Amino acid sequence: MTFTEKLEAAWKNSNSLLMVGLDPDPNRFPPCIQQSKQAIFDFCKGIIDATAPYVCGFKPQIAYFASESAEDQLAALCDYIKKTYPHLPLVLDSKRGDIGTTAEHYAKEAYKRYQADAVTVNPYMGFDSIEPYLAWQNKGVIILCRTSNPGGSDLQFFESSSGEPLYLHVASLVAEKWNRHGQCGLVVGATFPEELKKVRERVGDDVPLLVPGIGAQGGDINSTVQAGKNTCSTGMMINSSRAILYASSGDDWQEAAAAVAMQTRDAINAARG
């Protein structure tokens, strides 16, 4: 099963467009977890088990693990997801961007070491920095387009001679040239629903959008869904991290995470119509 096939099955079978981002911050873990020798693994595993019924996938952010020298815990966590929830896509959020053999190694890291179904990448260095990922034709390649941070406008709004902003040029490149095997997606932030709508119009129905920015970053769910959904009312992985992960720091942390995930999924589904 390819990444896009797996994602489409998850949207249907889970009745959810919600993706939970795994951004573990040990300083925010509940006391009952902080004493563990593998606290990052235990916390993320607890979140995964609590929220799995309400999501279309999980998105670990590699920097949160690497900064704590916890890459082995990330690998173990990815293995746990693949074995316990094989129907849910695993997206490694690493935003890699390099060329040649270096990109080949980053692809191997994502797809082999961490068993990811898809990985986020940066297109700034052009097609030859994306091509090594495309060689893994059953895997997903999710390319930064219009990011949720305010500073993204510094470059992403740069206009060509025709007046087209760079983020729409990236969207066109992906949809018209790079997506030869139907494995590409785009990262477009929920904090900019008007740009999200323009990207969806530019790429059509078949390019899935990874949409960060709801929850703690303040993106509006209804505006996000209306702007980014395709004609099947799917087409998005709407990511929420901190609002779910740290819904409670008490003994009820798993129950609280599950409750917020369910509420978020239901709000997304209500906006889908």
- Beta-strand percentage range: 5-15%
Radius of gyration: 18 Å
Q: Helix and strand succession?
A: HEHHEHHEHEHEHHEHEHEHH
Return the average pLDDT rounded to an integer: 95
Secondary-structure-based class equals alpha/beta
For the termini, the CA-CA separation is 29 Å
User: How would you describe the shape?
Assistant: globular
Number of strands: 8
User: Major β-sheet, in short?
Assistant: 8 strands, parallel
User: What's the arrangement of strands in the largest beta sheet?
Assistant: 2-1-8-7-6-5-4-3
- Uncertain ranges: none
What share of the residues lie within helices?
Answer: 40-55%
Determine the oligomeric state from the structure.
single chain
Provide a count of the helices. Answer: 13
Pathway: Pyrimidine metabolism; UMP biosynthesis via de novo pathway; UMP from orotate: step 2/2
InterPro entries: Aldolase_TIM (IPR013785), OMPdecase_AS (IPR018089), OMPdecase_type-2 (IPR011995), OMPdeCOase_dom (IPR001754), RibuloseP-bd_barrel (IPR011060)
Family: Belongs to the OMP decarboxylase family. Type 2 subfamily.
Protein name: Orotidine 5'-phosphate decarboxylase
What does this protein look like?
This protein is of the alpha/beta class. Helix content is about 50%, strand content about 15%. It is built from 13 helices and eight strands. It has helices at about 5-15, 30-35, 40-50, 60-65, 70-85, 100-115, 125-135, 155, 165-180, 195-205, 220-230, 240-245, 255-270; strands spanning about 20, 55-60, 90-95, 120, 140-145, 185-190, 210, 235-240. The chain has an eight-stranded parallel sheet, with helices on both faces. Helix 3 packs parallel to helix 5, helix 10 (about 195-205) runs parallel beside helix 11 and helix 11 (about 220-230) packs across helix 13 (about 255-270). The chain starts with a helix and ends with a helix.
